[in-house]
């Protein structure tokens, strides 16, 4: 299966690297010249629990891709999804599938502009991954990947994707209702990403404090209350257990939103906490802690040039 990883950041490189290591035909696609150049020159330096190694894998800019892929795995930020897919529009074929393993809500709606519903796969992943510098990625934890066809059908192609990802170590599961996992991940990220971004503290440092734990629990419960109101059977206690486990097991992890704030980049806050706030307003539900974190991170990213160092 010819696969393009669209968005070769920390997660894209982890998935692309391990898929390539298992002999799959994979190309990384990104807009970052330092990232593309480093991977092409020296390979992808990947560190996992199994050790450090260098993986030879092609990295390209979108305009350099000429072959029609069987599968595009979308790992860009949601804010960049439309422009990223537009850059590959010429090589998206009549059989090309698009799999979104992105954070946030509404990714499937963006993808529908490029491929029909029966070729969209939506999913979640909770593998940790950090981009240490161009071409260097570290992932020292395990996780699960859950996927579902956007139209709910379990096709042979969906099974092929499941097998390919599982063979590469991503513990892939086809689920009948991936929206439970998506909302639980949104709850997790609305707490962990936003709290670390606003505080500039690593995950473990947030979790060392009673205040951090209390805020994380409140956000998880607020987000899940919105999901439940939409008849999505997410479970707040499951999210809280995962958050508290990550406070310990991934204590040194710096979530992507925190890395974006540290790098003065636009975050995904509008598609995580912001999306929850907007959905809550439609339903008449109060989510005060989630809303405060949304406004706080939004305020920070609008004032990068004014931050006191």
TrEMBL record:
It catalyses: (R)-pantoate + NADP(+) = 2-dehydropantoate + NADPH + H(+). One of its GO terms (molecular function) is 2-dehydropantoate 2-reductase activity. Pathway: Cofactor biosynthesis; (R)-pantothenate biosynthesis; (R)-pantoate from 3-methyl-2-oxobutanoate: step 2/2. Keywords: NADP, Oxidoreductase, Pantothenate biosynthesis. This is 2-dehydropantoate 2-reductase. The keyword NADP applies. Catalyzes the NADPH-dependent reduction of ketopantoate into pantoic acid. Pfam families: ApbA, ApbA_C. One of its GO terms (biological process) is pantothenate biosynthetic process. GO terms for cellular component: cytoplasm. Residues 181-301 form the Ketopantoate reductase C-terminal domain. Residues 4-148 form the Ketopantoate reductase N-terminal domain. InterPro entries: 6-PGluconate_DH-like_C_sf, 6PGD_dom2, ApbA, Ketopantoate_reductase, KPA_reductase, KPR_N, NAD(P)-bd_dom_sf. It comes from the Bacteria. Its EC number is 1.1.1.169. Belongs to the ketopantoate reductase family. Transmembrane segments: none annotated.
């Amino acid at each position: 299966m010819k696969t393009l990883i669209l968005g070769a950041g920390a997660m894209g490189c982890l998935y692309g690297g391990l898929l390539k290591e298992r002999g799959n035909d994979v190309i990384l696609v990104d807009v970052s010249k330092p990232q593309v150049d480093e991977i092409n020159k020296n390979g992808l330096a990947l560190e996992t629990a199994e050790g450090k190694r260098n993986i030879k894998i092609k990295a390209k800019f979108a305009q350099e891709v000429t072959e029609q892929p069987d599968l595009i795995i979308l790992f860009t930020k949601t804010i960049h999804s439309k422009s990223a897919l537009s850059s590959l529009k010429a090589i998206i074929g009549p059989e090309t599938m698009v799999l979104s393993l992105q954070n946030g809500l509404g990714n499937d709606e963006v993808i529908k502009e490029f491929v029909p519903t029966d070729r969209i796969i939506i999913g979640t992943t909770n593998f940790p991954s950090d981009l240490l510098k161009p071409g260097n990625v570290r992932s020292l934890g395990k996780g699960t990947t859950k996927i579902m066809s956007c139209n709910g059908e379990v096709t042979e192609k969906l099974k092929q994707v499941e097998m390919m990802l599982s063979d590469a170590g991503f513990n892939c599961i086809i689920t009948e209702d991936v929206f439970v996992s998506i909302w639980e991940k949104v709850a997790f990220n609305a707490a962990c990403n936003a709290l670390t971004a606003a505080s500039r503290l690593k995950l473990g440092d947030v979790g060392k404090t009673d205040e951090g734990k209390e805020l994380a629990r409140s956000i998880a419960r607020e987000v899940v209350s919105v999901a439940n109101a939409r008849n999505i059977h997410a479970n707040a206690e499951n999210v809280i257990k995962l958050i508290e486990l990550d406070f310990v097991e991934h204590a040194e992890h710096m979530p992507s939103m925190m890395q974006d704030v540290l790098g003065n980049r636009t975050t995904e806050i509008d598609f995580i906490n912001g999306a929850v706030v907007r959905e809550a307003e439609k339903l008449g539900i109060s989510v005060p802690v989630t809303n405060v974190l949304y406004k706080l991170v939004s305020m920070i990213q609008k004032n990068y040039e004014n931050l006191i160092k």
